Prior knowledge:
Elements: H1 10-24, E1 27-29, H2 47-51, H3 54-63, H4 68-73, H5 76-89, H6 96-107, H7 118-125, H8 129-140, E2 142-146, H9 154-161, E3 170-171, E4 173-175, H10 177-181, H11 183-192, H12 205-220, E5 224-230, H13 240-256, E6 260-267, E7 280-281, H14 286-295, E8 301-305, H15 311-320, E9 324-326, H16 336-350, H17 367-391, H18 398-417
Parallel strand pairs: 1-2, 2-3, 4-5, 5-6, 6-8, 8-9
Antiparallel strand pairs: 6-7
Amino acid sequence: MTLSAEPLRGHDSIAAAVTETVGAAKVVDMHTHLFAPAFGPLNLWGIDELLNYHYLIAELFRVAPIRYGDWWEMPREEQADMIWSELFVKRPPISEATQGVVRVMTAFGLDATAPDLREARAFFAAQDAAAHAERVLDMAGVDWLVMTNDPFDGEEAALWRAGVTGTSRYRAALRLDRMLNAWPEACELLQAGGYAVTEDVTGDTFHEGRRFLDDWIERMKPLYMAVSLPSDFVFPDDSARTRLLRGVVLPTCLEHRLPLGLMIGVRRQVNPNMRLAGDAVGRADITSVEHIAFEYPQVRYLITMLSRENQHELCVSARKFRNLLPFGCWWFLNNPSIVREITQERLEMLGATFIAQHSDARVLDQLLYKWPVSRTIIARALTETYVALADAGRPVTGADIQSDVDRLFRQNFCAWVGA
Ligand code: HDL
Ligand code: ZN
């Protein structure tokens, strides 16, 4: 089907055009935890990493009576074997995360009904990391992606200092969680690195904190800076976080013309026994988002919230502040039923002025389910929208659909970050 200026007649022709256009879109995946192959062990891929995804570990603990301590002492392959047995063999893999692994295996022609992981392990063992990465991005229709880069992570920082960098398909985002959520720890690390900062955020802390960010911006060339914030995030208040935002982070955004990613609504480590799988969600205060958008109107914010209850009010706030660009259906929201609801209300309230989705992938091969599933769901919401427009009396063309799909899956983000 050629997408043209000819009006599309009726639901089925609109649905077909939307499905084709969304399916063929070369997306920009603007938030992931993936690393370019040059980052070595940080580049996670293959069946053992897929099965050790923290989403699946959380689901394993619901069905296997294993003690937390015993689990964390197990070798990775044994952990993967147990997850495969408990979640894929002993019961049908019907959850979003287990279906995702099935989709990945199917994409590579592997038997998702296998009783063990021998075939899958042999397949991945035969792959070259760099070639596999290119192949998976191409199969997933990901033109390029953005990593999550933490200067406070010793292993990652050492790689950057040794000259490892992003690539044209793996761009950087400078992550500020430890600076803004764990200042005492970050303060010690900065002091050890020769930055004259103080725990009470006085003295040269603003100057030295900005020098630290300048150094990492020079090294990483990030497209934006980002931070995940707790559900009880308040701005402004008398906390170190507010002082660091006002004195270090936001001035740096303005000086370097870098957007700031705000990812709000996490309740970290509600069950520390589960480690990365131990985080939960909480409804956050949308007025703090409005305060920071109002106080710094020149800063461009990428904004996503973790609670379903915050989604509608985020659409309202984005209508009030044009420097708020909502993005994605984050983490616990990245399920078909909720992606559909969020996308529909964003289209109704924002038109095509948001970023439809990001994968949040931690394991390279997850792109082969996170993007196909999102494309299908988002296409359904778009189809409903265009059918309503045609019904309202405005003919819809393939060119209309292409222009909005470009906005939603890459152009809104690229324009925001100047990529
Ligand atoms: O803070 C974040 O960027 C979250 O996406 C966390 O990394 C979370 O653990 C995750 O992987 N969600 O999908
Ligand atoms: Zn993430």
